[in-house]
Fold FAM86 N-terminal domain-containing protein.
Amino acid sequence: MSNTSNQEQDDFIFRLKVLYNQMVHIPIMLATLRKEFPKFFNQNDDADTDLIQDLKSIPLQEKINNNILNHSNRPTTSYFKKFIKTIVDQLQKLDQEVHEEILEKFMKSLSTPTGLAGDPLCIKSYCLQDSKKEEWVTLVNENAYNLVGMTTWGAAYLLSDYILANKSFFSDKHILELGSGTGLAGIALQCVADPPCKKVVLTDYSPKVLNNLKENIELNNIEIQDFINTEDFQGESEKRFSVRILDWEIEDLKCLDQCLDIVDSEIIIGADIVYDPSLARYLVAILNYLLNKKAGSMAIISSTIRNQSTFEIFQKELVEKNLIVQDITNQCDLLNPSPFIYDRSQIVLYKIYANIQ
Ligand SMILES: C[S@@+](CC[C@H](N)C(=O)[O-])C[C@H]1O[C@@H](n2cnc3c(N)ncnc32)[C@H](O)[C@@H]1O
């Protein structure tokens, strides 16, 4: 007999689904669930504390099957296999019969090939609502780290978290994202309502990244204006969301003046765009140009500090351009619990303004 209520089981399943869809590493998944739902786990300190005791409950197994395993959008075949194997292994340890449909899927998974190199792409989904309204956003990522813009990075989780916790700040604003990559932070702006963002312009420079970005936005039923292959860089989008090519290493920043979509931005956002020391001066030059063009504008940049010296080069460039920098990492409102599972300890959040006196 389970000692958890129906509601508690639904809450547990919802969180399990969030973790599964984000492809959280299985040991981290179990540790997160154990922390948030201790009642579902083995309470005996001597025993396996990662064992979900409540799996003995057939209704809970049924919910896992119906709400998670039945979904056709699997993150990757290999992740699905690891996940279902964990469930089956746990049930065996509990000496509990495996739900018929779970067993069937497990047996089938054993004969499903994943290929020598594994799955080239993965489909990650995120529940972008702070309540349990199931508003999922799905993004295609590449599994190999060949091209940085084909992966959704931790700094994008923090920036999206910040957007979702501070929606009114972005309301009715014209927003430009630099180095959008797979597009999570830009797509999170779709959740801003009453009124929504005035304009959202997502940019990157690599054709492959831009095409994936466009496909990701369309995958989530957001209408966009596609400027990726337009010979003429100028023009303004009629649609709220647009995708543009914007290389920070632009020779003459004045050519941006023709693009109202870009120079009219009131908020510039960027996640994990400070990672290459050779790009810092271009990035700061473009920030400086745009922040000085539009009175009252600001940039909000989240950065993972992997290498202190790279970040120092960026900070030095900001000081040289006389930009005002505010570190809001420890003062910003974020969602609790976050819809994203990530390690925040190395990520900072900066607000940057022009020093207009
Ligand atoms: C580490 S990724 C971050 C992607 C995304 N913002 C995220 O956090 O998931 C860095 C992004 O900057 C883009 N990028 C790198 N150099 C660039 C340049 N010169 N101009 C424009 N974008 C650039 C990359 O294509 C990539 O999408």
Remarks:
- The CA atoms of residues 130 and 335 lie 7 Å apart.
- The beta strands are 121-127, 136-142, 174-178, 199-204, 224-226, 241-245, 267-271, 298-304, 324-327, 347-353.
